[in-house]
Design a protein that fits this description.
This protein is an all-alpha fold and 460 residues long. Among the domains are: 77 residues, no CATH class; 143 residues, Leucine-rich Repeat Variant (Alpha Horseshoe); 87 residues. Helices cover 60% and strands 2% of the residues. The strands form two sheets. A two-stranded antiparallel sheet has the order 1-4. A two-stranded antiparallel sheet has the order 2-3. Strand 2 and strand 3 form a beta hairpin. Helix 5 packs antiparallel against helix 6. The radius of gyration is 39 Å and the shape is elongated.
């Protein structure tokens, strides 16, 4: 069905005929007039929107129909008689007419950057409904210009927000202006006005919050400067924030006179993982005790882990774990060092791990030692374990049987089968359990198979 036929049916008894127009391109095979049944070559087609063509026509409708159409149009026009210019929309947003405010709220984001100055002024309005609505419109515009291709508008928006921070605007305006900056500040934009706010207890939390979400080079630089200024609590807070952002701080903080600052710096710098930090870390721990000593040791061990993960620094990382194992008196610290040796070591650490279970605190270190040995993988490592097996204590032998079974490596089959013939009841039970684990299909989780979940009898 062509468009003329459709229109003819929608408007009964109308007379539709093409209009003769000069100087318009002719379509030689146009469809004819549905009323006349033919189309004269002297009639032409007019190009319409989207590259389509429609025939020009005149409607000769009944007066009643014209009256009805006029009435409908007038009602429709009156229903959409809303302001479309910027000044009128701003006035509606700050007015008392709720319906006009809603309409202005929907239309103002489309005005873009031009609407920012009057909206910032509205955000100073004492009516919470008005300034909150203005704030939401500004946020919509901010998200719009924050995308690629709107760098100029984004910078202009940021300039205007920074100007608000330097004015005597109300507190709620300052607060939400700071928050808007978090989604707008472009890379490379100077954040000097925010430094003063960050040092003001009134705005510190808000300012640190947006510096965290900005993620720009300038925001990290400002945070690093703030880590050297203010009270101990404030500085520690900023250093921890930098750690959460995977940023860094100056190694000079490891020499700070405040122990809390040194420990916080150790936690942050541990992720850098360079060998040149080992000596400064050890120096920073001097004189620490109690909870601070525990936190510092944890950071020191994290440094060792970061070093060991890097093949180039693996040797230095293992040396750090060995140093902790040999010098520390805390069972937890020595146990963590054993874990590091098991995670990153080779066959050379097997005798060291066994030796730790034979000296002072030996019984307390048996469990972390067995876990460390269980994390070692490779023929050389397994051969080293078989070599030390006869010389260890009975408890360690029982534990090693479980380690051998969980490896499912053929190298341990002969030993496990021999242990199942032992006259020692404990050895016999441990060997049978280990052999059971050894014979499980490779894809079965050995730990879960050793301790199957208990049946839920609550429904019985």
């Amino acid at each position: 069905m062509n468009r003329l036929t459709t229109l003819h049916r929608l408007v009964p008894q109308s007379r539709i005929r093409p209009v003769k127009i000069k100087n318009v391109s002719r379509h030689s095979h146009a469809r004819g007039n549905p009323e006349r049944g033919r189309f004269s070559p002297s009639h032409y087609w007019i190009p319409a929107f989207a590259g389509r063509t429609i025939p020009s026509f005149r409607l000769r409708a009944k007066p009643t129909l014209v009256l009805m159409l006029g009435l409908v149009f007038s009602v429709f026009a009156s229903s959409i008689a809303v302001a479309t210019n910027l000044d009128a929309l701003i006035q509606d947003l700050g007015g008392n007419d709720e319906s006009r405010r809603v309409t202005a709220r929907q239309m103002l984001p489309h005005k873009g950057i031009d609407a920012v100055p009057p909206l910032l002024k509205l955000m100073e309005n004492e009516d919470p409904v008005v300034w909150r609505t203005a704030k939401n419109v500004l946020a919509d515009i901010g998200h719009g210009v924050g995308t690629l291709g709107f760098e100029k508008e984004r910078r202009e928006f940021t300039d205007r927000l920074m100007a608000v921070l330097r004015s005597d605007a109300p507190d709620w305006t300052i607060k939400h202006t700071i928050r808007l900056l978090g989604i707008l500040v472009p890379e490379g934009y100077s954040l000097k006005p925010l430094r003063k706010l960050a040092l003001d207890s009134k705005w510190r939390a808000e300012t640190l919050g947006i510096l965290e979400v900005m993620g720009t080079t300038e925001s990290r630089k400002l945070l690093e400067k703030l880590s050297r200024t203010g009270s101990v609590e404030d500085r520690v807070e900023v250093i921890e924030l930098l750690r959460l952002l995977s940023a860094s701080v100056s190694p000079k903080l490891l020499k700070d006179s405040e122990p809390e600052i040194r420990v916080a710096a150790m936690r942050t710098l541990a992720r850098r993982g360079t060998p040149d930090l080992i000596a400064p870390f050890e120096h920073a721990m001097n004189g620490l005790d109690g909870a601070l000593r525990v936190e510092a040791m944890d950071a020191y061990l994290n440094l060792g882990e970061t070093l060991a993960k890097n093949k180039k620094n693996r040797k230095e990382g293992l040396a750090l774990f060995l140093h902790v194992l040999a010098t520390e008196t805390s069972v937890s610290s020595r146990g963590a060092a054993l874990a590091g040796l098991g995670n990153f070591g080779d066959e050379s650490v097997v005798p060291v791990i066994i030796k730790a279970t034979q000296g002072k605190q030996g019984r307390d270190l048996e469990a972390p030692a067995l876990m460390a040995l269980g994390n070692l993988r490779g023929d050389a490592e397994y051969a080293a374990m078989l070599k030390v097996y006869p010389a260890v204590s009975e408890d360690m032998r029982l534990g090693l049987l479980g380690v051998f079974g969980r490896t499912q490596d053929p190298m341990f089959r002969k030993l496990l089968e021999s242990a199942t013939k032992s006259e020692n009841a404990s050895t016999l039970a441990a060997a049978k359990q280990a052999l059971k684990q050894f014979n499980l299909p490779p894809d079965i989780n050995v730990a879960e198979a050793s301790h199957p979940p208990k049946k839920d009898r609550s429904a019985e």
